[in-house]
Amino acid sequence: MALNLGDLTLEELTSYMKSMGEGAFRGKQIFEWISRGAESLDDCTNLSKALREKLGQSAEICLPTVRRKLVSRIDGTVKYLFGLSDGNAIETVVMSYHHGYSVCISSQVGCRMGCTFCASTLGGLVRGLAPNEMTGQIIAVQKDLGIRISNIVIMGIGEPFDNYDNVVKFLKIVNDPAGLGIGWRHITLSTCGLADKICRFSGEGIPINLALSLHAPDDSLRREMMPVAKAYTIAETLAACDEYFEKTGRRVTFEYALSEKNGNPAQAAALVRLLRDRNCHVNLIPVNPVRERDYVRTGKESVAAFAEYLNKNGVNATVRRELGGDISASCGQLRNGEI
Ligand code: SAH
């Protein structure tokens, strides 16, 4: 199988070119071509034809292809279904904010975490995405829309920490100033709470924003909603988040999808008890409809009351703005195909 050059960091690409008997600067040239949207080695026009042919014997460059593109009539959010080189597909969402464009990328084809409110896990896991398929989503939307992405959220299909090595590699590639150059503070990774991986990630020297999908204030409800809670208790998960905060100085965000299951006043009080002594932020997400699931959103007033209770009791909380509702581009609605 050919080596995909988009899976290499600048350093690795440089040594690869040296091993091919080429000057080190060739590595940087190719790295730049990839982040500017080259779809094949032939697009790298400052490499000689002979060099492109030599490289082509063992290596390749590719970009996801747009299989379908939907634009929200409500807020302009764009959702892509991208085709990958092995025929699989994933979804990516582009949102426009006053501070720039933000892209929500997928980290896996499908997901095996089994959260009972989420569409992405319905067909199970197919495979993790390679680093080039994660950067490729960003590069392809920049190229298609003629924009520059300023923020990345790894909140699309998949559990990023279930594809740990590739996600860490992707983060290093996307942060490199020779490529997309997106700063750590402009990147957010959301995890369902693989606590051992959170601890490991704390030591990587990658101080991005961490979001933890909490969704319940007690272990028994969380186990009912999220199978991962059978592997790690809330206490263990929060301890891992505390370690992340201590090592990186980045305040952790807790996501809480509000429904009739977890949105009553007693549950708000339990959530306050869990979080009030932490320097954190709660992001409330009125649960989004997924046709195979039976979660029911609580009304606007009770969402506002839940948020107000948290804020009044020392837990900083905001309600996440719903974007792309008419094109099923909201949290938990992304899928692997046109279904
Ligand atoms: N696997 C990662 C990223 C996935 S989704 C994780 O679990 O964090 C990003 C966020 O959307 C998560 O907080 C997820 O729990 C939430 N989510 C999933 N389904 C949802 C739904 N139907 N309504 C609202 N939020 C949902």
Topology, element by element:
Blueprint: E1 3-4, H1 10-19, H2 25-35, H3 49-56, E2 59-60, E3 65-71, E4 78-83, E5 89-97, E6 100-104, E7 108-110, E8 125-128, H4 131-145, E9 149-154, H5 164-175, E10 187-191, H6 195-202, E11 209-213, H7 219-225, H8 234-248, E12 252-258, H9 265-275, E13 280-286, H10 300-312, E14 317-319
Parallel strand pairs: 1-2, 6-9, 9-10, 10-11, 11-12, 12-13, 13-14
Antiparallel strand pairs: 3-4, 4-5, 5-6, 7-8
Helix pairs in contact: 1-2, 4-5, 6-8
Describe it:
The chain is an alpha/beta fold. The model has no long low-confidence stretch (mean pLDDT 96). The chain is 32% helix and 21% strand. Bound molecules: S-adenosyl-L-homocysteine. S-adenosyl-L-homocysteine (SAH) is lined by residues 115, 117-118, 155, 159, 190-192, 213, 255, 257, 285, 287-288, 290, 331-332. S-adenosyl-L-homocysteine (SAH) binds next to strand 10 and strand 12.
